[in-house]
Amino acid sequence: MSVPVLFKDKTFLPLFITQWIGAFNDNVLKSAFTFLVAYGGLSLAGLSSDAALLIGAAVYVAPFMLASGLSGALSDRFEKVTIIRRTRLAEIVLALVAGLALLSQSVPLLLICLFAYSTQSAFFGPAKYSILPEVLREDQLIEANAWLESSTFMATLFGLLFGGFLAGNGHIGFIAGTLFALAAISYAVARMIPPVGIAETGEPVDLNPVSTSITAVKTVFAKIRLFRSAVGLAWFWSVGLVVLTVFPDVAKSQLNVSANVANVLIASFVVGIAMGTAAVSRMLKGVISARHVPIGALGMAIFLIDLAAATNAYGAAYPNLADTGFATFISSWEGMHVVLDMVAIAAFGGVFTVPLYAILQAQSEDDARSTAIAGSNIISAAMMVVVTLVATLLMAAGISVSGVLVVLGIVNIGVAIY
User: Fold this and answer.
1) Shortest CA distance to 383 belongs to which of 275, 185, 227, 249?
2) pLDDT digits (tens, 9 = 90+) for 256-287
3) What is the pLDDT of residues 218-246, one digit of tens each?
4) How far apart are CA 186 and CA 95, in angstroms?
5) Where are the alpha helices (DSSP H) in 105-208?
6) Burial of 96 by CB count in 10 Å (0-12 exposed, 13-18 middle, 19+ buried)?
7) What DSSP letter does each residue of 344-369 carry, written as one string?
8) 204: left (phi > 0), else alpha (psi -120 to 50), else beta?
9) Which of 67-76, 196-205, 392-401 has the lowest mean pLDDT?
């Protein structure tokens, strides 16, 4: 099998490796936090585990709303590669603090680390995505985004599995060491990315995070295709956040399965994303088009609603099982049904998102591409916070997680129409 042309590009390959390690480390920390709360007995001010997990998710999302505008402005005015390198250097320091938080099992310090990791990711994102149109042809953007999206979710898969498995089995020190070692490797690889130059705009750099955020959002609102792409991406990330955040607790309390089975269920979601992004890349063949986006949204809607039914059906069929292992779970149709729904939701999500990212890159002005991507990140962060808050309130009002999934599915039908 020949090496894809993109991986022979001197910019794309080290960027690909750097972002993969970053996504892996982010999700190792998030997964460790999730499993320490869901299975390890850690608590936050006496809140239920599902409420604590949603608060952790909101803490992780908030910096994308607060810092993305400034990060986009900096990426449009300064060398993007320098910004990428500095975020990777910052992650080395954060890994040391995160290791201390994990070893001490301090929930407040873990929340601070989640916030800090997210902040450096918020600065990395606009530089990462806006650099692609500067080094690749337009007909390569779909394939490049498909590779980045699928690899990011594969990194998410391995990060979630790695962090969840080790945290669930008490190997906290190994998690801490891995975070530091990979952060150092990521910085070393980032230094291999060649500079791409700076856009000459003649405009002064605005360092006010409020005004830069407003400018970023206005940039997205200026073109209808940018706006619709940003809203679509925001909704996808909101759905994914809620599903992946609450599912470990669903696995424990409703499906009565072990932590390892919960990891497999999360893995099935991420594998589906990889399948969907690869499929849409083949279908579009380099053409930047949104024609498959409504199909992706409708598929997500159908299988979100079906997932709610599947989890209820499994709980009803096996009410007396506890700490069920993978072999027992997967041997039943009800268990397999849950897995297939997770894969299908994610696969249609991949079909939904890849064209939207390419449109966002291709339709942005050259000297404001990072700002547009930052604006999209702000909209995504705001929607994720709102959707997470609504989900938390619904569950606090007595609505089950299955009910929340149905609500998400119904709203997704509206997104498909939009």
Assistant:
1) 227
2) 777 677 777 777 877 887 788 778 777 777 67
3) 888 888 888 888 888 888 888 887 877 77
4) 12
5) 107-130, 132-135, 141-168, 172-190
6) middle
7) HHHHHHHHHHHHHHHHHHHHS-GGGH
8) beta
9) 196-205
